Amino acid sequence: MKRATGLLVVTALGLSACGSGEPATPTAGAAEQVTITVACQPAKSAPKERQAWDDDVATFMKAHPGVTVKSTDQQPCFDPKTFGPKLAGGQMETVFVVPVTNYDDVIGKSQALDISAYTGEIKNWNDLRTDVRELVTKDGKTYGVPNVHYGVGLVYNRKLFTEAGLDPNTPPTTWAEVREAAKKIAGLGSGHVGYGEYSGGNTGGWHFTQAIYGRGGNILTPDNKQAAFNSPEGKAVLQTLHDMRWTDDSMGNKLLVGWESLMMAMGSGKVGMMLGAPDVVTDVVNKFKGNVADYGITGFPEAKASLSGGEAFMVNPKATPAEAKAGLQWLDFRYNTVGKGRFDFARGKTIGNPVGVPDNDVYGDSATGKALQADRKTNATLPVENYEPYVQAAATIPPKAEPPHAQELYAILDVVMSGVLSRKDADLDKLLADAETKANAVLAAKG
Question: How far is CA 255 from CA 247, 421, 425, in A?
């Protein structure tokens, strides 16, 4: 959701395209002088990470003497406030980040270049997961390089489990066990929260989607024309939350709205469990001062499916053939080479980054994926055994993508989540029915 992510997605993609989107022809012969702009330079407030980036730029340009790389000084890498206007105005970098919920809009409106002719620049292209590559493919043409893929699990505080008399090595596998563990953690007193949940900022609807997927339900009908969440599975999600909030008193009494609110609470060491992908641990430690040894992650309870998400790099449709080729070469070096760029785990360990969280699965169990996993473990600065339950579970749980028009739907479902968490007498059936009516109106307007 926030990537990089919480992946909050703009709703302003209906603006004009910034180019034709027609495939360019690769340049033959000698390399020409070319300048590309690239997204995601770390902020000045993270000087070690920024220096590593600048070092990578220098290394890349030395290896590609015809290419000049200019970095965009913007964090977060994907900013929902500026993404739509920049895209519509043709101001995007040569290579830029697109969250998975925006792929279809960006591709459909010719706001990304067909890079089919350039995928060979990504040396490990064929090792990228087929299902992830398919997400950036339309009508047989490729429009992006997958960069992040994740599945949701249950993040938990191992220290609080121990203090509450629970075994941190056997985390909950059912919702009944989650509920019992939450009661014991809340029973520690002093503001402890057994289970944390969102209620607004589109994050409430996002987590509702995670929960209903896990129970085998859907947000939309198979043709994506009607809402499907007013269902036994949807009501079960709300009933569990209602019972934990009002019967067990294990969820605290503060409504958590945006992404940062629950992450901050988790980092405080007073929240026992929450739904999230492995990168939650990284953010809780890096951004919200959590103790790295305290956290673990396990599989989604009773999961019939797990919400998956991610992002890809796409190429500005205004890019010349030389710029497109250079952009893909940059992505290959910085984001897709074992031991280099973002996968330079030895460097990450040296500069104090948390290394060891299994937070990216674009390569799966391919040769590249196995090499990355081995290198990550070799240089781990985190207790990798804390994440093994998630790794084992994730391999058996089918991934399920976010629904079309996700952000509009999440905003509607925020009201449902807020209602059940703020009112003891909330009418669950009415909350779902009202949201269904609003969602169907949105879907009808979308055609």
Answer: 17, 7, 16
User: Under DSSP, is residue 210 helix (H, G, I), strand (E, B) or coil?
Assistant: helix
85: preceding bond cis by omega (within 30 degrees): no
Rounded Cα gap, residues 40 and 198, in angstroms: 27
Q: How much of the chain exceeds pLDDT 90, in percent?
A: 66
On whether the CB atoms of residues 236 and 324 are closer than 8 A, the answer is no
How far CA 323 is from CA of 68, 318, 326, in Å, comes to 10, 9, 5
Q: Considering just the CA atoms, what is the radius of gyration of the chain in Å?
A: 22
The span from the CA of 342 to the CA of 60, in Å, is 13
Q: What letter would DSSP give residue 2?
A: B
| HSE-up (13 A, CA, CB side) for residue 292 | 15
Instruction: Tell me the CB-side half-sphere exposure of residue 229, using CA atoms within 13 A.
Output: 34
Q: Which tens digit of pLDDT belongs to each residue from 163-214?
A: 999 999 999 999 999 999 999 999 998 899 999 999 988 889 999 999 999 9
Would you say the C-alpha torsion 262, 267, 268, 271 has a positive or negative sign? positive
pTM: 0.76
